[in-house]
Every structure is written in structure tokens, then in C-alpha cells.
Amino acid sequence: MSRTIHKLKARRLETLNTPGWYGDGGGLWLRIRPSGSKSWKFIWIRDKVRREMGLGSYDAYTLDDAREMAAAARNLLKEGHDPIELRQTEQEEERVERIREEQEARPSIRTPTFLAYAKKYIAAHEGGWSNAKHIWQWTNSLEKHAKGILEISVDKITPQDVADALKPSWTTFAETAARVRGRIENVLDAAKAEGHIQSPWENPAKWKGNLQFLLPKRKRLVTGHHAAIPYEDMPEFFEALQKREAPAARALELTVLCATRTSETLLARWREVDLDRRIWTIPAERMKMRIEHRIPLSHAAVAVLRAVAGGKSCKPDDYIFPGQKPYSPLSQMAMPLLMRRMNLGQFTVHGMRSSFRDYMGDETDHAETVIEHALAHQVGSSVTRAYRRKDAFEKRKTVMTDWADYLQRRSPNFAAAGQQTRAANLEEVA
């Protein structure tokens, strides 16, 4: 039997000079360019896209070194991470730390530029932010959407400077530009508090009474939220969904029954569910609010999970809805694509939560706080939450059972509504 990994021999590589790609297996390759230079590469496929990550030159790393790095990258992929993105995040963190140390090591000679102080601000606050992606978003958004003020001293920036910097993205990327304006305001306030800006001074990035006269008012979405199937039509949609055999159909079925977010369903592992006690416990690190969320499973939800398990003994760390690649979850696009195939592409998966919320609010007597708990929303003020430490779990059992019972009814309006939507779509295409 031929080897699947560790195919290359160190001795052979020492004398190998012919340009080309030489595979060691498991995604590890040695590339020899026509110039004679040799470098290690790690290659994998994700969502049908080829990804390539350089591991360093042949002269700097031995074959054993490259194998260790490739093994580490494979482990990251098994855990659902992207090795390139994680490495970029680590490099950015190191760069920010290096800049901070350099700034602390030398006395301040002049007022810092906006970019220099923004990096210092980010480094000082990143410990309180939830994840590395948020840090990256701060740095990237300022460098991309506030280019016009990056090299200006913080004490010299004017409202017109800020307006000119934001104009290119103000209408095209309205939400992003609004966040960037707020971040600029925060950075400049911090610079003032640290003594880099002297009074009298008014923050040039402030909106009210300031930038509101220099920038057009942003257009806000009228509907504002994810397109949702009217709850009156959900029973017939659910019946049609149950007839589908694809794994994405079972994932969407569970998502609807439990009113969960897409990622909460797709990243679920078998260790999170207790089918005998009918409880699904999503750990805090996977929740939007970073608070553990327990879901009382209706009989219908348990039936979906048992059908997915197929009577097999599932490993605790396995994804409930695995993707086509080993150790990876079902694609984020699996459920939206399924809805398109059902001629319901105008609606969103996240909108199912709105359908649940509308039904519960309009057609049932369940308390608002219990419904909000079912959606894993924060309920009440911080003071209220400090005293209210339970999650209304027992009451939510009835909520989820009522929802499952309702979904298994039929609405005569659904077919007609679907036909009207399809006709409208055909007219638009024509």
C-alpha cells in the first residue's frame, strides 16, 4: 500500500533541482521554481476553492519542520479554522504589540498621527474585545475607510478632514462608514484624554451639530431586518421541508424548530445534545451574547436528531451536520441554497427566527420575556439580569412544543403565495 503522507525523502530533496511540485501527502508540498529556489507549501480545498499557504523556504526549514507545520495546519482545519486567517491575526497582534512596545520605549517627541494613535488605542482595548476578528475589523476599517486622516496629527484633524475621508464610502458602504465615524470619534476622544489635544476643542468626528452638515444623511433600510416567511405560511413550508431528503433540509428543520441562528445549528456537535432529557446546550463561546443557551427540545426536534443519527452511536466531537470534507461542518450556504431550490430564495434562514417571534407574539399568550429567552436575547437591564439568573427553561418547554405543534399544521394560503412570488420573479426576469 502506498503512503498517504511522508512520501518525500530528505536525502533525495538535497539533490533535487528539477522545477515542479513535489508532494509529501496531507497537503504538504515542496515547490522548486525555475530559478532553483525551494519553498514549502500547504494546500487544501475549502468550499471548492483552492487555498495555498507558504510555510517558509527549504533552506530555513527541514522536512521534519515542514511536516510539523502541515500537521498543525491540518488540525486547525479539523477544528473549523482557516490557517491563513489565524496566522494573519497572530501577525497583526504581534505587529500591534511591537508598535506599542516601541512607542513605550521611546519618549514622545511629537503629537502622534491618527494612524499611530489608533494602533495604540486598539492595543490598549483589545483585551476587552470578544475575539481577534473584532480587533482586525477595527484596524482594517480605519485603514481602508479613513485613509485621508491617517497621517494627520490628532490635534490637527478638522471636521472637513473627517468628512472628506468618509465621503467615498458614506453612501456605498453606509453601515461600515457609520461605524468608522464612531471609531474615529472614540480614538480622538482618547487622544484628548491622554493630553495629545489641548482645550478648547470639539471632536471633529462628532455627528450632531458637526458632520451632519458636511455629509448626507444615511439612508436606512425601511424593513431593516431579514426577510421572513409570514408565520401563517410556515406550516406548509415546514411540511414541504420535511419531504426533502438532503442533510441541509434536516439542518433547516432543526433550525426552524429550535429558532436558532445558522451558525448555532451548523457548528453543533453531538456532545451538546442530550436526547433522553431533550436538552440542547450551546456553550457560551458559540453564542452571540457569549452566554450558555439551553434549548428544550420538542418531540419533533428530537425526532430530527434521531433521524440524523440514523441509529448509530455518534462520537461526541463529531458535527451533527457534517460537510463533505472530513472534520468540517455543513457549508453556511447549504440552507440558503436549499431555500432557493424550494423557490423561496427571497426569504432568509435567519428570518425563521422572526417568523417564530411573530407567531408567538400574535397568536399565543406566552410572556414576552420567555419568548425572548427562547431566542437567546438579553432580557431587561443589566440590573434586572443581575438578579434574574434563571433562563425560564421550564416555561420555554411549552413554548417550543407549541411552536412544533403549530408547524405541523397547514396553511391554505401558502401555495397561492408561492405561486404569486414565482410569477413575480418570472416577470422580473422577463
From TrEMBL:
Instruction: List keywords of the entry alphabetically.
Output: DNA integration, DNA recombination, DNA-binding
Give the InterPro entries listed for this entry: DNA_brk_join_enz, Integrase-like_cat_sf, Integrase_catalytic, Integrase_DNA-bd_sf, Integrase_DNA_bind_dom, Integrase_recombinase_N, Phage_int_M, Phage_Integrase
Q: GO molecular-function annotation terms?
A: DNA binding
What CDD domains does the record point to? Answer: INT_P4_C (cd00801)
Q: Name one GO biological process term.
A: DNA integration
Which part of the chain is the Tyr recombinase domain? 224-400
List the PROSITE patterns hit by this protein, alphabetically: TYR_RECOMBINASE
Similarity comment? Belongs to the 'phage' integrase family.
Could you tell me what this protein is called? Tyr recombinase domain-containing protein
Q: Identify the species of origin.
A: Sphingobium chungbukense
User: What lineage does the source organism belong to?
Assistant: Bacteria, Pseudomonadati, Pseudomonadota, Alphaproteobacteria, Sphingomonadales
